[in-house]
Specification:
This protein is mostly loops. Helices cover about 0% and strands about 10% of the residues.
Length: about 80
């Protein structure tokens, strides 16, 4: 059986507590990346300068042994 109903037949967007979800133009934090002026673009030898610093923080991984390419983990680790 296929459930091909119109969108109005389903529940409106909501949070897990049942409250309505507010629609935002830029739901994330930081720059609005849908604007071309905010993208970090490069084309051959021409590029736009990146205005953010290189990330140097992180946590040291275990079990790297004789690692030659780095022992720090960066990014979301959940």
């Amino acid at each position: 059986m296929v459930n091909n109903k119109p969108a109005s037949a389903y529940a409106k967007p909501h949070t897990m507590s049942g409250k309505a979800v507010k629609v935002e133009a830029n739901p994330g934090s930081g720059k609005d990346l849908s604007d071309l002026n905010n993208l970090d673009i490069s084309l051959g030898q021409f590029n736009r300068p990146i205005d953010r610093e290189t990330k140097t923080s992180g946590i040291k991984m275990r079990g790297t042994g004789a690692a030659t390419k780095g022992v720090m983990s960066r990014g979301p680790m959940a």
